Amino acid sequence: MSRAALAVKLGHEFADQSLFRTALTHRSFGSPHNERLEFLGDSVLNCAVATLLFKRFGDLPEGDLSRLRANLVRQDALHQLAVGLQLGTMLRLGEGELKSGGSQRPSILADAVEALIGAIYLDAGFEVAHRVIEVLYAPLLDDLKPGQAQKDAKTRLQEWLQGRKKPLPRYQLLAASGAAHQQRFEVSCEIENPPLRTIGQGASRRIAEQVAAENALKVLKA
Amino acid sequence: MSRAALAVKLGHEFADQSLFRTALTHRSFGSPHNERLEFLGDSVLNCAVATLLFKRFGDLPEGDLSRLRANLVRQDALHQLAVGLQLGTMLRLGEGELKSGGSQRPSILADAVEALIGAIYLDAGFEVAHRVIEVLYAPLLDDLKPGQAQKDAKTRLQEWLQGRKKPLPRYQLLAASGAAHQQRFEVSCEIENPPLRTIGQGASRRIAEQVAAENALKVLKA
């Protein structure tokens, strides 16, 4: 993908193309790289997501808002956004990093999303960056069910079982495969009563456990 | 102080006075209180301070910027700002909280500063909130010496001594006085070689230690 195509996806045409280029430059490639922009973008993202949640959920207390936000700005979520934007093909990486698959490493991709947001903020101000973030996050926000979504699936499953005085679930790692930057994990979630065993897969053990718990909840609540 | 006088100090006249009132209402007083505004204001503050540092220190790497920001947005700093704004007299607190000195409690005052920033942001947008923060923080920013200031005084003192192969300083609590919400601490910092003993005072043991270390550095570098 070209930078022009990415600009269309982001909905922002950079006045200062050097900002755009820097945002896509990993430190392994040389200077200027995107780490300072990432610092800035992280804070812009936090603020914009806080605002979106504040306005969307007018009754939610501060603790729930914080928890929802933490879920939306953590590496998993940013990595997903980066994949959607096909950022991997656009990154400028040093040769070693490129060969070891850096262009698909979740941390590098997540950082680049933050750096891009920081670059848009410098290029055009807070309101424009806020609008870009609102569009990027629209699907994630639409998926939120407050009162539910602020607790993760493992927590909800545990509470469901505790509320019924049942033993807690056990999670077990079944398989981990793939190179370092694109590992896949498979985890089982076993419940004694009612007897149930579900499977989850994901890019980290944590994600796989959450998926397995979510699958268990679907069965239990069906 | 009246709210009108506070508005002048802040440099912002609220279009929506109910936002202003809510920002100054502690949860002990009743609803609506300022906790949601505090959540929002915290993120606005982080973003604005990140921006001020990013622009002021064009060469500083991301880690140093993060450290500087952490110092500027933590409770001590916000408490200082609240004292400067005389927020204590303006807060709406429940009776119990009022009697136990809540209007001078650093955490309550720091939270109210964040809530006020959140209220200004909702009332007039990011740029206005950013400008208010820039004015509030101007003295603190002018005091920063990057390369120095990103490390606290205790760290700098330790490094100064280690670099000269001298034994590390010892800190000792000499006195703590005052009611819970306005305690004063006095701490000594003792150095073996060159033999030196300095004293620091402050609203927490940590602050008193930093002041004592800063005083030791002044002597050692003189």
Walk me through this protein's architecture.
The structure is a homodimer of 222-residue chains. With 222 residues, chain A is mainly alpha-helical. Chain A has two domains: 3-143, Ribonuclease iii, N-terminal Endonuclease Domain, Chain A; 153-221, Double Stranded RNA Binding Domain (2-Layer Sandwich), CATH 3.30.160.20. In chain A, 58% of the residues lie in helices and 10% in strands. The first copy, chain A, contains ten helices and three strands, in the order αααααααααβββα. The first copy, chain A, has helices spanning 3-10, 17-23, 35-56, 62-73, 75-84, 95-99, 106-124, 126-143, 153-163, 205-221; strands at 170-177, 184-191, 196-202. A three-stranded antiparallel sheet of chain A has the order 1-2-3. The longest helix of chain A has 22 residues, at 35-56. Chain A is flat. The first copy, chain A, starts with a helix and ends with a helix. The mean pLDDT of chain A is 92. Chain A binds chain B through residues 35-36, 38-40, 42-44, 46-47, 50-51, 54, 60-62, 65-66, 121, 125-127, 130, and chain B through 35-36, 38-40, 42-44, 46-47, 50-51, 54, 60-62, 65-66, 121, 125-127, 130.
Descriptors for this entry?
homodimer; about 220 residues; mainly alpha; Ribonuclease iii, N-terminal Endonuclease Domain, Chain A; Double Stranded RNA Binding Domain; three-stranded antiparallel β-sheet; 3 strands; flat
